[in-house]
Amino acid sequence: MRVIPISYSAQGFALLHRVCERAGHTPVAYLHARSLRPGGPTRQGAGDVVGEIVDALPDGVDLLIPGRKGMLPHIVAGYRADLVVCYGFPWRLPSTVLRATALGAINVHTSMLPKYRGPLPVNWAIRNGDKEIGVSIHWMDSAFDSGGILAQEAGIVLGDDVVPRLLWEEVDRSIERLLPVALSQAVTGFPGTPQEEGAATYAGWMEPEFSEIDWSAPRIDVHNQVRAIRFGSSGRSGPVAGVAGHRLRVLRTSLRPAEGVEVMCADGPLWITESAPVADSDS
Fold this sequence. Notes:
The protein is of the alpha/beta class. It is 28% helix and 25% strand.
C-alpha cells in the first residue's frame, strides 16, 4: 500500500515512516503545514522545522508544503496513494482530499475519543486534572476527530509535573503498538467503531483569560492552570498573577506546603515554588 504521512516534525515523520514500512507499506510523500491555518502566516520557527524534515527526508520521498487548501486534492491525487496517515496537522482536510486516495485518511489523536476532540487534547486533560490520557487512531471525515475508531489505548499517566519530552516518548510507543493494527483494519475497509456523539467534548485553543490567574478560583484549578501552561510551553512560561503588589509569571505551584510564596485561593492555600518577574514586553 502506498501511503502519504502527514506530521508536524521530523520526529513525527520518522515514526510514521518506520511503522508504515514495518507493516509492509510504502511512504511516497510527506505533507507538512508551515501555518496554523490555510493561507495564514508562517509559524515562528517553521523554517527550522522544515530544515530538520528536509535533512532527514528519505531518498525518493517528496516533501509537500502547501500554502492553501485548494491545491491539496490535486497534489495528493497525483501520487496515486492508497491512504493518508496523519499525526499532527492543524488544518481540517476537505472531503476532496479524503477522496483523493483509494481508501481515505486515518489520523492519530492523543485522547480517548470522543473525549477531547480538537487541537489541544493533552493540554485540556492537564487543565481538567485528568490522571491519564490515551491514543486513538480513527478515520478522518469532514469534522474534527469524529470518524470511526480503528485502534485505541488508554493508560498514559499524567503526573503532577508533566515533562513534555517524556510524555511524547510514551505517546510514540503507544503509536508504534496501535498504528499497525489500524493500518491492517484500514486495508480491509473496516469503517471503525462509531464514536458516541453524546460523550464528545472539544479541546480547542485556550481562551485569552486563561493566561491570567484569578486567586478567587479553587486552588486545584489554579494549580492545573499553571501545569497546563507549563506543559504547553515546555516549561518556559506560565500564567501571570499579582502577588504582594508584584506581577509574576507563575511557573510551578504546589498543593502541599512547600518552600516558596504562600497565596490564598478560594478554598485554601497554594504555594508558588517557581516564578519569574513579568517582563515589560509581557505587560
